[in-house]
């Protein structure tokens, strides 16, 4: 039944409204006291309905009559493609409900039109066809989400509006906008046969002359705002993701958006308030606010006052490029004067950096790929298609077979369809195009202009190419989204965005992977990451679903974390950077990994390290591993990253992950954290399990967090700490692990006593430190005093009382010598035990002896240029292999060292009634703390001056160097992590030293969340 027959069928069954005057749409009204339907607002209509002046049934009849007059008769505007035969029945039910229980929302009983690519219940009798006969009588699964929301709010879906067929993506050689096979050629009501623009042509035309109270359109690039402009309407093209596209015939999941078209801003705001919000059927809506505001609350006549508006003149107001008539710019300039008169600040010009490049963007190439994938998916979801046009290919064939229906005379009309069908899906070329589009639309587009001029919005005439930047960006034309800077983003900041659905964990993973790709093996080649988790995106998607269902496991839920490549993680290698263990199978996740997963963290990948935790041969440059190559620090080209947790620190420093785990036996966590301007916590030995971690020494090994803030480090430690029956050292840990974030107290230093064991620890002749470190350290002591701390300076420890005490120096040397005996013996026993636990080792390296043999046999892989790599020396594979196990010499060395270090640290703390020791992180202090198994936390302290002389530390690494960071450490007795975290936090919050200098430019990845949101998986 065609639309004309449907209307007459209704009129035969029902009595028309009380009417006066002619049947012209312009003059037809309910009665002299009733609102004029040409301009009637939703508020006007609700007032009349509430007062009982007319009913929703009356409204439906009136709008049907108005459609009948001008749609296929008279001017033949072809604005409406079909009507809802059940609209009167539905209106009657809503009228009864209003009388009985009141109205559901401001849209209760209000008739609206939907563009004919927005699905409505098949049982209702309306089709959803994008204007094509190919989908006529196809059965959709149900209402589109936006249609369902309108129904729930009490709106009446009056009918379907005509459109540019297939939302104007079928071909560039179709007639003017507004033509569809089913609907014919829609025209503009302001001049006979004028273009209505498209593709939401009918929605624009029908709303302009009051064939409904308002309508919904869709936009990919200009398809709402252009017909709104051409037809004298308000149109809102929302941020991609604010409104669900589920049930909408698609073009591109990256650019499609559904929005209102109305006669006033107030009406548009009212409709947007209903249709906006998250939808589990459209994962792009996960970025929408968790709670949608009532947009009508922002209707403020003073909103322009004091705000800054930019005018991107270049390209967008150039009539030779836009094709606009000069009168448009004349009126636009008048509007700028009006904005100024309302107290607005107009920045003119405020050009978009990418303006000229947008003209040659790869947008259409992206849309073709998206169209084939997204449309085929939509068609597959239909319950039935009588024409059997179930794929894009079959639709092309349908159009060729039924040219009388689908091909207007003189037009081919399938060029884009055919080119889309020829695409081969998501590939590297496609993602390159997509990245370029986002860059043009976002960081070099709208964001670039807004940020450069500190603007609240951009202003332009709608006609021309104005919609393009917003289309490429996925932004609303009136504003821009803001996301946390991943260089500094904290766990708390990211959780806030995730909870509010500004972005998803999938987005986070994509962003971090892109950042890794930028600087790891490309550009500065920092070599911080040894491999990434191939399942990270899928795992993130599952965690996003959990969050949506109300399950948030912990503050780490959905947060991407890197692990040092000696911490086992299922699905990735665990090799200590060596090819000898590549492909080996371990029993399962390390305990700390399992705890992170249970807390909802995403294991993003494995960080590079000094191979074998720097124990194979200490003469090899720090940060080098055979698998990972030579890692370098991001604060100076070729900077020594320290080790062995090199990659964990480098990656965290520049935001390649939210945080990371490192391990320490002797300085391996504290030193790289210090060198890379991040926070590192080396916990008490036993607080964190070492099960599943490639070991050096059970007496000294510890796993701890590396983060950009003390708060993040505390959050990570809270999750990984605690007892584990696989590691008996953890039985000394507290039975109940506290939430360490509870100790983040900006006043923690006040009234506490801090000792400075100067001796060899602050003597540059012994530490090898640049004098700048002591200068900044002494300033830090003043900061501690200013925070109310009591600094006892100096205090003596038995193993380093003063520079002139030769006995103390000899004692320290004894510590080091004994440490070599202990670690050498421990390593052989521990590594052989670890290797025996592996399920398989392709290289057959089942013992330390075989590891040594492997390295000798594979020097092309395992021996860096210029190094022997396995010298018989202190702390080396060969020395360890020569040890004879736990003998009397071993136990004597262990006993002596524990007495000297634990006894010494505890004695100085107790004698001076100290709460902690404080020293620069660089230098010798890591040795006694590591031997004691005591906790230590480092926070950023400062940076080497720009005139610092560069010192070589290896074939391609240097330290110190201009701008190279260094840290400050707080040290305590066993299990005093809560106090140390509080002290470090108070110091960090007072100084914010990390923020005082950024990494060198090439080492900073540019990818941000805004660049990856809405990428395909």
Structure description:
It holds the Pfam family Amidase. This is Amidase domain-containing protein. Helix 31 packs across helix 32. The strands form five sheets. An eleven-stranded mixed beta sheet has the order 12-14-13-17-19-18-23-24-22-20-21. It has a six-stranded mixed beta sheet with strand order 1-3-2-6-8-7. With about 1000 residues, it is an alpha/beta fold. The protein has 34 helices and 24 strands. It has three domains: about 5-300, Amidase signature (AS) domain (Amidase signature (AS) enzymes, Alpha-Beta Complex); about 335-480, no CATH class; about 490-800 and about 895-1005, Amidase signature (AS) enzymes (Alpha-Beta Complex).
Order of the strands making up the biggest sheet: 12-14-13-17-19-18-23-24-22-20-21
Q: What share of residues are in beta strands?
A: 5-15%
The overall average pLDDT, rounded, is 91
CATH class of the largest domain: Alpha Beta
The main sheet comes to: 11 strands, mixed
**Shape, please?**
elongated
The CATH topology annotation of the largest domain reads as Amidase signature (AS) enzymes
Provide the helix percentage.
Answer: 25-40%
CATH architecture of the largest domain: Alpha-Beta Complex
Based on DSSP secondary structure assignment, what is the total number of beta strands?
Answer: 24
Work out the helix count: 34
- Report the span from N to C terminus: 43 Å
Class computed from helices, strands and strand pairing: alpha/beta
Q: State Rg.
A: 35 Å
Q: Estimate nothing, just give the exact number of structural domains.
A: 3
**What ranges have pLDDT less than 50 throughout 5 or more consecutive residues?**
4-32, 477-482
The CATH superfamily label of the largest domain reads: Amidase signature (AS) domain
């Amino acid at each position: 039944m065609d639309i004309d027959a449907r209307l007459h069928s209704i009129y035969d069954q029902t009595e028309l409204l009380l009417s006066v005057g002619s049947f012209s749409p312009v003059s037809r009204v309910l009665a002299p006291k009733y609102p004029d339907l040409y301009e009637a607002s939703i508020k006007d209509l609700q007032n009349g309905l509430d007062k009982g002046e007319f009913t929703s049934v009356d409204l439906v009849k009136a709008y049907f009559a108005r459609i009948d007059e001008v749609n296929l008769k008279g001017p033949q505007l072809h604005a409406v493609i079909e009507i809802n035969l059940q609209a009167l029945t539905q209106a009657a039910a809503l009228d009864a409900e209003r009388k009985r229980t009141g109205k559901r929302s401001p849209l209760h009983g209000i008739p609206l039109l939907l563009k004919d690519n927005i699905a409505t219940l098949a049982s209702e009798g309306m089709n959803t066809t994008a204007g094509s006969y190919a989908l006529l009588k196809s059965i959709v699964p149900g209402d589109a989400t936006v249609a369902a929301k309108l129904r729930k709010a009490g709106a009446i879906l009056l009918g379907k509006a005509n459109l540019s067929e297939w939302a104007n993506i079928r071909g560039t050689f179709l007639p003017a906008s507004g033509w569809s096979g089913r609907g014919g050629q829609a025209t503009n009501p302001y001049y006979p046969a004028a273009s209505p623009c498209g593709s939401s042509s009918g929605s624009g035309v029908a709303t302009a002359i009051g064939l409904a109270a308002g309508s919904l359109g869709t936009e990919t690039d200009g398809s709402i705002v252009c017909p709104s402009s051409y037809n004298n309407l308000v149109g809102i093209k929302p941020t991609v993701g604010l409104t669900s596209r589920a049930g909408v015939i698609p073009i591109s999941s990256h650019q499609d958006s559904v929005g209102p078209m109305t006669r006033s801003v107030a009406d548009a705001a009212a409709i947007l308030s209903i249709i906006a919000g998250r939808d589990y059927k459209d994962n792009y809506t996960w970025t929408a606010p968790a709670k949608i505001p009532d947009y009508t609350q922002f209707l403020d006549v003073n909103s322009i006052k004091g705000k800054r508006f930019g005018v991107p003149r270049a390209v967008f107001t150039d009539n030779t490029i836009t094709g606009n008539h000069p009168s448009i710019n004349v009126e636009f300039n008048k509007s700028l004067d009006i904005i100024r008169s309302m107290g607005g600040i107009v920045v003119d010009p405020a050009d978009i950096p990418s303006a000229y490049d947008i003209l040659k963007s790869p947008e259409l190439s992206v849309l073709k790929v998206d169209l084939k994938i997204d449309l085929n998916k939509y068609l597959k979801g239909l319950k039935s298609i009588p024409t059997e046009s179930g794929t894009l290919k079959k639709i092309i064939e349908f159009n060729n077979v039924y040219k009388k229906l689908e091909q207007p005379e003189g037009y081919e009309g399938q060029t884009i369809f055919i080119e889309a069908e020829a695409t081969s899906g998501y590939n590297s070329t496609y993602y390159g195009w997509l990245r370029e589009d986002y860059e043009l639309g976002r960081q070099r587009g709208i964001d670039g202009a807004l940020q450069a001029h500190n603007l609240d919005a951009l202003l332009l005439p709608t006609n021309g190419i104005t919609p393009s930047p917003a289309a490429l960006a996925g932004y609303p034309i009136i504003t821009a989204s803001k996301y946390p800077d991943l260089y500094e983003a904290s766990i708390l900041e990211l959780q806030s965005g995730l909870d509010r659905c500004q972005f998803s964990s999938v987005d986070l993973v994509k962003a971090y992977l892109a950042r890794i790709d930028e600087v790891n093996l490309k550009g500065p080649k920092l070599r911080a990451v040894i491999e990434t988790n191939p399942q990270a995106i899928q795992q993130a998607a599952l965690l996003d679903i959990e969050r949506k269902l109300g399950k948030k496991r912990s503050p780490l839920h959905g947060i991407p974390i890197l692990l040092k490549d000696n911490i086992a993680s299922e699905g990735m290698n665990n090799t200590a950077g060596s090819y000898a263990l590549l492909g080996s199978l371990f029993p399962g996740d390390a305990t700390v990994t399992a705890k992170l997963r249970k807390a909802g963290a995403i294991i993003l990948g494995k960080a590079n390290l000094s191979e074998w935790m720097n124990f194979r041969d200490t003469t090899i440059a720090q940060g080098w591993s055979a698998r990972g190559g030579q890692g370098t620090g991001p604060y100076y080209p070729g900077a020594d990253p320290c080790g062995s947790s090199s990659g964990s620190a480098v990656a965290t420093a520049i935001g390649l992950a939210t945080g990371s785990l490192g391990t320490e036996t002797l300085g391996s966590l504290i030193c790289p954290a210090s060198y890379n301007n991040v926070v590192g916590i080396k916990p008490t030995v036993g607080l964190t399990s070492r099960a599943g971690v490639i070991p050096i020494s059970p007496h000294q090994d510890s796993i701890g967090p590396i983060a950009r803030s003390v708060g993040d480090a505390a959050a990570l430690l809270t999750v990984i700490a605690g007892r584990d029956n696989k590691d008996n050292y953890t039985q000394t840990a507290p039975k109940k692990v506290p939430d360490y974030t509870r100790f983040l107290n900006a006043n923690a230093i006040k009234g506490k006593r801090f000792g400075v064991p100067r001796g060899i620890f602050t003597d540059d002749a012994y530490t090898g430190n640049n004098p700048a470190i002591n200068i900044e350290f002494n300033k830090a002591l003043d900061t501690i005093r200013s925070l109310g701390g009591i600094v006892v300076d100096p205090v003596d420890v038995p193993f380093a009382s003063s520079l002139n005490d030769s006995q103390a120096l000899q004692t320290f040397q004894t510590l080091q010598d004994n440490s070599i005996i202990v670690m050498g013996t421990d390593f052989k026993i521990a590594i052989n035990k670890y290797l025996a636990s592996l399920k398989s080792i392709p290289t057959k390296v089942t013992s330390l002896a075989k590891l040594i043999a492997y390295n000798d046999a594979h020097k092309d892989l395992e021996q860096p240029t210029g190094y022997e790599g396995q010298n018989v020396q202190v702390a080396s594979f060969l020395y360890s292999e020569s040890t004879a196990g736990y003998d009397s010499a071993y136990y004597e060395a262990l006993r002596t060292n524990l007495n000297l270090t634990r006894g010494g640290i505890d004695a100085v703390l107790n004698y001076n009634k100290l709460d902690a020791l404080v020293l620069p992180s660089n230098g010798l202090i890591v040795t006694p703390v590591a031997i004691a198994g005591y906790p230590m936390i480092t926070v950023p302290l400062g940076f080497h001056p720009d005139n610092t002389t560069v010192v070589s530390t290896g074939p391609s690494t240097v330290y110190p160097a201009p701008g190279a960071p260094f840290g400050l450490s707080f040290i305590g007795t066993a299990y005093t992590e809560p106090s140390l975290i509080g002290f470090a936090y108070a110091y960090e919050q007072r100084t914010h030293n990390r923020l005082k200098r950024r990494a060198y430019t090439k080492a900073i990845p540019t990818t941000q969340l805004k660049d990856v949101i809405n990428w395909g998986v």
